[in-house]
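ARCHIVE CARD
Drawer: 12
Card no.: 0347
Subject: one protein chain, sequence and derived structure
Cross-reference: see card 0346
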Amino acid sequence: MSATVTLAVMLLSGCSNSDDAGTPAQATSETASPTPAPRDPQAAEQALQAFVTAVREERLDDAWGLYAASIPGGTAEHRSDRGCDYGIFSFEFPSLRYLFQQIAPLNVVEAFGSALGISVVELSVQGVNGVKYLATLARAEPYSQDYQVMFLNKGVPAAVPGVPDPFPSPEFPQGFCGIWTGPR
């Protein structure tokens, strides 16, 4: 009986993942910490086009979901640091629709990074009316792939090449939600 136990121990130790020194192998489990995804101008452009389409087709809730201040799952709360609340957005919606009826489709002229962070993309876009606009899109969350529209105005790239100016000139005021809707 003791020979059987000795043989079993020898077989088990020979089949184990230990090195020659008799030290058992350690399991390697690296915990990867999430890092913000790199900028993706194409995904930002798709989000802008989806937003414009939702507004033009009068899909208020879909447009709200593509707006940077929205929080998934409802309209009671919003990200106040990223824009207006649902009530003000609803009030601005007819002006947004009118704007996009006049200028859509939008053609992306150039994409920029942004001083606002790695999860923000600035797009210089041109409307069918020939006027250029600056669209600022931010990721819903730093680690997600989804962009949302934060600003759209008549800002232009700054005097320093490649550095966009996200603020509109004073003669072109923004709407209440950071999206230029024409003079008041």
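Annotation on reverse: The radius of gyration is 27 Å. DSSP finds four helices and six strands in the chain.
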